[in-house]
Amino acid sequence: MSHDHSPAASSSATAAAEPPPPGQLDGPIRHHVYDGIAEYDKRLPNWWLLTFYGAIAFAVIYWMATQHFSDVTDGQRATTAMQQIEAIRLSSGSAQLDDEALWKMSRNPAFVQAGEAIFKANCVACHGADLKGGIGVNLVDDEWLHGGKPTEVVHTITNGVIEKGMQAWGPVLGPQKIAEAAAFIMSHHQEPAAGN
């Protein structure tokens, strides 16, 4: 096995390892040298600058579009998020369905919309689309035949009023849908002041 130790072979290997002399590359050299390394002062490539400035322009346009030209404010987004969190908490069963929780549900658009859909599908035939009654009782006046507290409304929907012809909806709808329907009905009423 022979190794070529000729000066021509070693000079070509050395030439590949050594940087080219400063005159071979374009651009000025910076005035400092670190560990024998000279640094060229070259411009960044145009594609890099275009990407950088494009990202800045996009950020400004995006910020303007989302913060200044949007119809929804941060306060509205926060309110919507809080309502969604409250809806999840109330619907998960972790909240006790008392009058206070049902009043909160009646002020939450997510529950009211769900309750309206349930009401339209099951209750309109007797109570009317405007909740003013027909065969069934008026649900928007201040006269309550079977109790006007939210928990009493839930009880009435759940167990029905057999002597008046209202079926028990508890087995059909389940507690969540009944609470949503009650929230829709109570959304047409004002919560009484504390102590009443």
Number of separate helices: 8
Which stretches are poorly predicted, pLDDT < 50 over at least 5 residues? Answer: none
Strand content: 5-15%
Q: How many structural units, i.e. domains? A: 2
Q: Give the CATH architecture of the largest domain.
A: Orthogonal Bundle
End-to-end Cα distance: 107 Å
Instruction: Sketch the major β-sheet.
Output: 2 strands, antiparallel
Rg measurement, Å: 38 Å
Spell out the CATH superfamily of the largest domain. Answer: Cytochrome c-like domain
What overall form do the CA principal axes indicate? rod-shaped
In total, the number of strands is: 2
Order of helices and strands: HEEHHHHHHH
Structural class: mainly alpha
State the helicity in percent bands: 40-55%
The CATH topology of the largest domain turns out to be Cytochrome Bc1 Complex, Chain D, domain 2
Q: In what order do the strands lie side by side in the largest sheet?
A: 1-2
| CATH class identity of the largest domain | Mainly Alpha
For the residues shown, what is the average pLDDT? 79
